[in-house]
Structures are given as C-alpha cells and as structure tokens.
Amino acid sequence: MRTLRHYHQIGLLAEPARSSNGYRDYDTHALVRVLRIRRLAALGFSLPQIAAILDGNDPPSDAVFDALDTEYAAQIEHLTRQRELLAHLRRYGAFPDLPPEIAAFHSVLRDSGLPAGAAATDRDHTLLLMHLIGPEGKDYLTSIYELLSRPDRASAVAAALTAWASLDGESTSDEIMHLADELIDLFLPVIAELAALTTGLADFPMARERIFQQHTTNYLTPAQQTVLDKVRAGLAHSADVAQRRPQHDAEGQQ
C-alpha cells in the first residue's frame, strides 16, 4: 500500500475513490498499470522515464537504452572490483577493514611472529594513517609496508610492533628508549630505500605532520607517543647529518 500511495503522489497511478467500506477500489486497468510500472522499475528505468513510457505511444529511444546499459556496465565493473577485493583479502586472511594494499604485507608480518593483539593495534594505526595521508599518499605507505615486510627484516619488525603495542603506563624509560632505538635502526634503511623507490613522495608525510600529531595525541598511549617523538627526532637528526656530510666532504676537498 505504501508503494501505491507513492505512485499516487507522483502521478504515476490515478487514485480511485473509496468504496463504502473505506477501501480504495482498484479495477483491472489499475492492476495492469501497476504491473507495467513494476516491470519498468525492475529494468532500471527512472520514475520520470516510466511516466513517459506509460503515457507515450512509442518505445524509448536508443539513447535511453544506451544510458541505462552504460549505468549497468558501470555497476558490473564496480561489483567486479569489489569481488576482487574480497578475494584478495581472503587470500591473505586479512580483516576486511584493513586497506587491501597492505593485506599481503600485513600477512607476512603476522607469519613472522606478529601476535593477534599487536596485529590489531597495527591495523588500527594503519587505517588511521591511510585516512590522514589521503589517496595521494597511499603509494608511500604501501611502499613502507613492502620494505618493512622484506624477509630480511620482517621478524625484527614484527617483534618491534609487538613491543610497541604492549607499551602502557607501566613501561619503563629503558624500555621506551630501547624500542625507540630499535625502530630508528629499522626505519633508517627503509627511508633510504624509500627515497629511491618513490621519487617526490619522500617528503609527503611532512605536509601532514601536524594533522597526524593532532589525531594521535589522544589516541596513542603516553609511552607510545614518547617513542614516536623519539623516533621522529632520531630520524630527523640522521637526515640532517646525512645532508650536512656532503657539504663537509666538499669543504674538506677544497
């Protein structure tokens, strides 16, 4: 009845008078018109198009059919991509909320010893990072995961991420400093390799640094934030030293 009332409101179906018992009396002509409306709607025609077809004497033009066919082709393409994404996530045993670009590398880290709890923490952080850096930074983050999950460093990365996830209010300063040093040692060669792999993207995260800090201040534990600050400072210092070294070498040769 709600559908029929909608048809009445938009003018697709004439509204019959009520009989003595208070019900509307639909005749066979109204039934046929409703059947035509439902058939056209099932094919995907819009309500204005349905009205034109019902009240016209000619079938729709080729342009109308072409437009509807193009719309269905786009839907099929979208659904095909969705199925491919589901198959990709299933292949690597990934949670469906994990960015699919990271699924393969996240699987390597889990196989390298990253426990479920630490994997969940990293998945949350990755989802937040992917959101903050936007589509233009997706390749940058994906490249980082690809380098971190290399066979020669995946186990060390899994161990560091496990320690990172376990940082809390009882973590000691020694634990914090030790983990920060470990992460710096892990990320220095990754950053060097990343600069060669992703020309023009190496400086991209700096543009979102303030946004990232604003979002993570209340999200990370104080110990995690301390480690992050120390790692950031250590990497910045190493980059500064590396930048000054060629200048120093050039001055020494003069």
What does this structure look like?
By secondary structure, the chain is mainly alpha-helical. The protein folds into 2 domains: 2-58, Multidrug-efflux Transporter Regulator, Chain: A, Domain 2; 97-243, no CATH class. It has 12 helices and no strands. It has helices spanning 2-10, 28-43, 47-55, 62-91, 103-111, 116-133, 138-148, 154-165, 173-197, 204-207, 209-216, 222-253. α6 packs across α8, α8 (154-165) crosses α9 and α9 crosses α12 (222-253). It is elongated. The chain starts with a helix and ends with a helix. The relative contact order is 0.06.
Using brief descriptors, characterize the structure shown.
single chain, 254 residues, mainly alpha, Multidrug-efflux Transporter Regulator, Chain: A, Domain 2, 2 domains, 12 helices, 72% helix
Question: In a few lines, what is going on in this structure?
Answer:
This protein is mainly α and about 250 residues long. The protein is built from 12 helices and no strands.
> How many beta-strand elements?
0
Shape: elongated
- Count of runs of 4 or more consecutive helical residues: 12
Tell me the count of domains: 2
- Derived from helix and strand composition plus strand pairing, the structural class reads mainly alpha
**Tell me about the biggest sheet?**
none
> What's the N-to-C terminus distance?
92 Å
Rg (CA only):
30 Å
Q: What fraction of the residues are assigned to beta strands by DSSP?
A: under 5%
String of helices and strands: HHHHHHHHHHHH
Helix content: over 70%
Poorly predicted regions: none
Mean pLDDT: 85
